[in-house]
Amino acid sequence: MPENKIPYKIYLKENEIPSKWYNVRADMKNKPAPLLNPATLKPMTAEELAPVFCDELIAQELNDTDAYIDIPEEIQDFYKMYRPSPLIRAYFLEKALDTPAKIYYKFEGNNTSGSHKLNSAIAQAYYAKKQGLKGVTTETGAGQWGTALSMACSYFGLDCKVYMVKVSYEQKPFRREVMRTYGASVTPSPSETTQIGRKILAEHPGTTGSLGCAISEAVEVAVGTEGYRYVLGSVLNQVLLHQSVIGLEAKAALDKYGVKPDVIIGCAGGGSNLGGLIAPFMGEKLRGEADYRIIAVEPASCPSFTRGKFAYDFCDTGMVCPLAKMYTLGSGFIPSANHAGGLRYHGMSSTLSQLYHDGFMEATSVEQTSVFQAAEQFARVEGILPAPESSHAIRVAIDEALKCKETGEEKTILFGLTGTGYFDMVAYEKYNDGVMTDYIPTDEDLAKGFAGLPKVDL
Amino acid sequence: MPENKIPYKIYLKENEIPSKWYNVRADMKNKPAPLLNPATLKPMTAEELAPVFCDELIAQELNDTDAYIDIPEEIQDFYKMYRPSPLIRAYFLEKALDTPAKIYYKFEGNNTSGSHKLNSAIAQAYYAKKQGLKGVTTETGAGQWGTALSMACSYFGLDCKVYMVKVSYEQKPFRREVMRTYGASVTPSPSETTQIGRKILAEHPGTTGSLGCAISEAVEVAVGTEGYRYVLGSVLNQVLLHQSVIGLEAKAALDKYGVKPDVIIGCAGGGSNLGGLIAPFMGEKLRGEADYRIIAVEPASCPSFTRGKFAYDFCDTGMVCPLAKMYTLGSGFIPSANHAGGLRYHGMSSTLSQLYHDGFMEATSVEQTSVFQAAEQFARVEGILPAPESSHAIRVAIDEALKCKETGEEKTILFGLTGTGYFDMVAYEKYNDGVMTDYIPTDEDLAKGFAGLPKVDL
């Protein structure tokens, strides 16, 4: 390891865990477009959202003016269980790549949910408990959000009903057991337990499910059950708010050593990790205080940013949720069955969509075999087996570092390592056996999804 | 969380990672008995051990006089990848138990091997590389050691052949994929690839395997292949030496806050974790500088300490390895098929056996349903899903804390949380489904194992 004052892992102290979340919308000139009531096409009011979401979370969802929001003490206490998360200087990866680039990653996988999702899960469970609810419903794709929420609900004594995308339920049987160990009930989606599930099963008997469909089921159950609300692990403004703890910690750790990143890279499915990681950096960029190159990385098989349309769309397949303006492939879009892991949502955070639309960030897409190649290389030198989702960011970080090798530039790269891949070994097995495939949707495939976009004329 | 100066997680700084291992044998008046050559019944010489083990590791194995041994810089560098590991104050568990006890645990699971095994794996791989070897062979039970070794070998570019106990190979298919991702080859044991494997399969066609049998296969391949040696993840003196990094860090972290444990608890299979955790504390006890109550916890289904004999025995089922004097159930002992996870070795570290024999530590055994009950309780309040092995220590730590609740004593308890349970979800599923069973071997069961003990008259 080179002589350097910067340690391999930078840990903040426990009293340096942020006490406020940062709300990037407060600094956006063009605010993200509001959620619309699908019946009236008018912006959803807090009252209209109340049957679905917890009251305090609705307030956070609609708040685009306060830059900082206090983190309740109970949540700060829980954060101490697994935060601050380390900011790691990738000395071993730099050496393996023989690059002059300086690579850092914020590692959010050192908790049992295996990802950053716990940051928002504990917040949402806290507000549900505070409101006196009995329980919450949700969907999960790769299983990280469901696991995180089951941990959070167990902590506050809330019931937790998880609808898990069927393909993940089958690929990741052990995820289900972790959730059950934390007391959650887990149902593969689409299921026979809801009207929308039965409808989708009737129309598509062999479907492997989608996040959009699981959302519809979870919302139906929440709205129809006394004392329950629905919670979501990505896409929403409130989630990006909670996840800002990632970026705030990362920035504080870098600031300690006077390091300023040139490039910030995050994987993007619904945007929870990317939005959280970049939050304070984007804030500086929006306020004109600093400039950063910010790159969203998405799977070529589910390319919302790079090939989607910026339009109002349903957040769910069942079209029961409000409309959001976002980069979307259409709520009927389902990634091909060979797509492993998460990052399979048809849409994207409205906040990130607006920022991308306004030119504050870039987006790129990568194919999954090249993602797993990067994952394997990273695992072997850095000692952490990454989640497939996180490995999208690794792929682009490595590519950027290799460009530096060619040009000789000593760029500082920061990327988000959102989680670990311990529950993704079916996908790793395919890669190890050399039978993993890539799939890029054709323009015709995408046209089918776009055809389902609602006609909204504002 | 209570107001307290002691944080939830105590992290040492990277430059506080120990630069020397501590060799408890140097402070033992009664040294552990030497390994014997099974042919001559004389102590094994370095020359006799050389075909099996790496030279430098043999020197460490036989060294019972030097109290401190330098950790080579290359190993210290690797340690920085995942060490220092946190010492965690179990505030949440204390609150849940409503106990006046103060509970600390040293958590070794925050690395991809999922356990403390990496501490010795990287040392053994380093010395193999330094000797110019092509590769190493080993066995693995629960899979933690095999994963750790595959990571270490990948780092140093060594070939790694792992013989995995068949029951674990079947219960933990994903462990195999992690090892393959790190480039190792994994064979279920007993296998057709070795003489001893074929013999055992012929005699016991339906066997689910045992550590002792997998050791025989790995040793046979190492001895018979040019440029290979055999490495072992537990039991040996050298392993306890490397694992002393656990106890040294734990003690340094406690010393920072002026905390002295009253009770130290560790799970015990072959003794690697327990021996490492207690090392510096035992040193003080041996030198008369301090007193600690030290408790080894083993499964009731594999009770080497509590029901075994202190005698010379073969380290492996095939009886090709040297004899060690230890608490043993006989090299033919195989735990019942319902036993989940590791801690399934028939014997026990010679060093720990001698210390136990001389009254420096206690031992107790626990049944697995009560272990999983403790695991679930711990996971829900502390946010870490523990390995079944580690949960043996959790069980006894909780029991000790509950005793303090009755007596009002404010004892300080330290236990070793050796790893995470992400690859043990088949066992958790059984517990969640209420179909996990206990099994305590009868005296007749044990008598069969004892009947196979070699006749050694010294």
UniProtKB/TrEMBL annotation, chains A, B:
Keywords (A to Z) from UniProt: Amino-acid biosynthesis, Aromatic amino acid biosynthesis, Lyase, Pyridoxal phosphate, Tryptophan biosynthesis
GO cellular component terms, A-Z: cytoplasm
Domain (Tryptophan synthase beta chain-like PALP): residue spans on this chain: 82-419
Catalytic activity: (1S,2R)-1-C-(indol-3-yl)glycerol 3-phosphate + L-serine = D-glyceraldehyde 3-phosphate + L-tryptophan + H2O
Co-factor(s): pyridoxal 5'-phosphate
InterPro entries: Trp_synth_b-like, Trp_synth_beta/beta-like, TrpB-like_PALP, TrpB-like_PALP_sf
Pfam families, per database record: PALP
GO molecular function: L-serine hydro-lyase (adding indole, L-tryptophan-forming) activity; pyridoxal phosphate binding; tryptophan synthase activity
Stated family: Belongs to the TrpB family.
Function: The beta subunit is responsible for the synthesis of L-tryptophan from indole and L-serine.
Protein's name according to its UniProt entry: tryptophan synthase
Organism the protein comes from: Ruminococcus difficilis
